[in-house]
Write a structure and sequence with these properties.
Length: 571
């Protein structure tokens, strides 16, 4: 490039940067008060509100007009793999994270890119799950938990890096994919790496300085409550990751987190209940103290992570109002619990997909009994349903507080066969102990005609209200709105859909560039409601598709490549 062209390029770049900076309106700081009561036109956190309902009170788009919904703008991220994060919107500013830990700041009305943050990852980094599930906002700052286990703080207006804190050493198998949870001035994150011999934890950092406030391990050390459930030194490498953003009860001052599998995968390598694996744990936001817990299933051998945070929902049972927690488990059961400052108590549980492992659930404690022929072990092969991806994996459910319906993106009729093998721990290397089975250890129940489902459950009656089925598997996070709508993608046909939330009838669909496994959101600007979602197939949705192809002899191909899609009604 000659000097003249170079000068023109630099001047053009500087002019563009200046123009973007000038066009950006004053930034509205995200305060504690706003996080507790976010405005309907904004989407300030992972699930919109601390209770994790995934519900928008906006109703301009509704069952009478959603068929007219059209694309307003789209933006290609330029990246492959699973695009799973929700667009976070504050007063017209949209922030989207992507695989490889990029962050895009976009004018939410026009789709104009304002700035882009790119993290340069280590060459020796292993990425079992190359994705990111969102950013968090507080004050005039943005927070990102990275796949190389670093918490990054950016200026939300300019994208400038303000500070970075190493949460753990990625070389030892620690990484992060979740959107941080911010409450009471603390930025909370959990670590992934349950297949890599980590010892899981949730840590909190001062939102202003980045200094560590507390760190609570999900596996107790010897002498701590629950340590007797881990034999020998197994607690040091027992896994129990925390993949997904927690819920927060401001009145109790407690945050609720789902935890993952113990490691290695086979429970006979670590005899005992293995607290606090496959559980919900309640942590004091100020101190990190573990206040209480409930374990969904003990001595997991199925890789049924229960990492999705329970929804804070008050519901009716036997004429009484229960201050509740509700969780659609990867183990295939829908769990109704009661939360208080002192305890998490079992109320009820029932299967929402076909499940052949549990033979009984204790009416008082919720502890399940097992058909031991369905429990794989070292040198012992067993088949079980649902598959290791569960009745529902990480994609979040949604709740409509008006209709009292809970919406679950489920997968039924898929099962796994697993056998364990001996494995040695080496830092940062796979520590699963899973042997090889035919067809990848995956099969579809004979005589069934579908896999994916969207289910609606009435939380007060505990009964299924309706369900819609799909031949494809379903990896679609759910958004519910006050317009009596449910939005979801998740299927291998690349469609993003809207359903009547009271009946399950499909009212609208839009094909996208790839499969939609991103978390949908709704926001408004100048009185106009928008729906936004990322399309970008990858990670486990793609891995399951490969096994379905192998099992069925099919050749379904879902293209990769991320894009943000924004929809609205025509003017």
């Amino acid at each position: 490039m000659d000097k003249f062209k170079l000068t023109i390029f630099i001047l053009g770049y500087l002019f563009h940067s200046f123009s973007v900076a000038q066009s950006a309106k004053p930034y509205k700081p995200v305060t504690d008060a706003r996080l507790l009561n976010p405005e309907p036109e904004n989407w300030l956190m992972y699930r919109g509100t601390y209770d994790s309902h995934g519900f928008s009170t906006l109703n301009q788009i509704n069952t009478t007009n959603v068929a007219d919904l059209e694309m307003v703008w789209s933006f290609s991220t330029g990246l492959r793999e699973g695009h799973q994060a929700p667009p976070i919107v504050n007063d017209g500013m949209m922030y989207v994270s992507t695989p490889q830990n990029h962050v895009l700041a976009i004018d939410a009305q026009t789709g104009t890119l304002l700035w882009r943050y790119v993290r340069y990852l280590p060459d020796d980094l292993q990425q079992f799950h190359p994705t990111n599930r969102g950013v968090a906002l507080y004050g005039e700052r943005l927070y990102l938990a990275t796949v190389d286990a670093v918490l990054v703080c950016l200026d939300a207006v300019t994208g400038e890096t303000l500070w970075e804190v190493t949460v753990e050493d990625y070389y030892d198998g620690y990484y992060m994919t979740m959107a941080p949870l911010i409450a009471e001035g603390k930025v909370m994150v959990g670590v992934s790496g349950g297949e890599l011999g980590i010892r899981g934890f949730v840590a909190a950092f001062d939102a202003e300085t980045g200094s560590e406030a507390w760190k609570t391990f999900t596996i107790p050390a010897p002498g701590e409550p629950g340590s007797e459930s881990w034999p020998g030194d197994s607690w040091k490498t027992g896994g129990v990751p925390v993949w997904i953003t927690g819920s927060y009860d401001h009145e109790l001052g407690l945050s609720y987190w789902g935890t993952g599998n113990g490691g290695p995968w086979m429970g006979d390598t670590r005899p005992g209940d293995n607290l606090y694996a496959t559980s919900v744990i309640a942590l004091d936001v100020q101190t990190g103290e573990l206040a209480n817990h409930h374990q969904y299933h003990w001595n997991d051998s199925w890789d049924w992570d229960e990492v999705a945070a329970p929804l804070l929902i008050d519901y009716a049972r036997n004429g009484q109002n229960i201050k509740g927690l509700i969780h659609a488990g990867r183990n295939g059961y829908l769990w109704f619990l009661e939360r208080s400052e002192e305890s998490i108590d079992f109320v009820d549980a029932k299967p929402y997909v076909y499940q052949d492992v549990f033979t009984n659930i204790d009416e008082e404690t919720g502890r399940p009994d097992y058909d031991m022929s369905k429990k794989p072990g070292t040198g012992f092969e067993a088949s079980f349903c649902p598959s290791l991806w569960g009745g529902k994996d990480w994609p979040p459910v949604a709740f409509d507080p008006t209709s009292r319906l809970l919406f679950i993106p489920a997968n039924d009729n898929v099962c796994s066969t697993m056998v364990g093998e001996e494995v040695q721990y080496n830092p940062g290397q796979a520590f699963m102990g899973r042997g090889q089975s035919e067809n990848g250890g995956f099969f579809i129940r004979p005589g069934t005609d579908h896999i994916g489902e969207l289910q609606a459950w009435n939380v007060d009656t505990g009964q299924l209200a309706w369900k819609t089925t799909f031949k494809s598997h379903n990896w679609g996070p759910v958004l519910a709105t006050a317009g009596d709508l449910v939005f979801m993608g998740g299927t291998n046909d690349r469609y993003f859909r809207a359903f009547n939330s009271k009946t399950g009838e499909q009212l609208w669909r839009q094909p996208t560039n790839s499969g939609v496994i991103g978390v949908p959101v709704s926001f408004a600007i100048d009185g106009k409601q928008y729906i936004a979602v990322q399309s970008g197939w990858g990670v486990d949705a793609e891995r399951e598709q490969n096994l379905i192809n192998m099992t069925r002899g099919s050749n379904t191909y879902v293209p990769q490549g991320g894009a943000i899609w924004v929809f609205a009604l025509p003017d």
